[in-house]
Design a protein that fits this description.
Layout (H helix, E strand, L loop, with lengths): L10 H22 L8 H37 L1
């Protein structure tokens, strides 16, 4: 039996998501690393990176939620 539905996984979409999340990580890191209360450059990089990583994870989830809702709304109009 053949199904006319598309597969939910797409490599191109995954690469685009990773690139956008990487850009978001760089932006978040540039914003938060100046707020780390330390004078040690290693600690500033560590905690700035961990914080930016958490924020990038939230961005990843929010971006995927946006895509799902957008696809649903577009499909419901047809």
């Amino acid at each position: 039996m053949s199904s006319s539905e598309k597969k939910p996984f797409n490599v191109v979409s995954l690469v685009i998501d990773l690139v956008l999340t990487g850009i978001a990580f760089v932006i978040f890191y540039s914003l938060v690393h100046v707020h780390v209360p330390s004078h040690d450059p290693a600690m500033i990089k560590l905690w700035g990176g961990l914080t930016a990583g958490c924020m990038a994870g939230v961005f990843w989830i929010a971006w995927n939620m946006f895509k799902v809702v957008f696809k649903f709304q577009r499909a419901s109009r047809k």
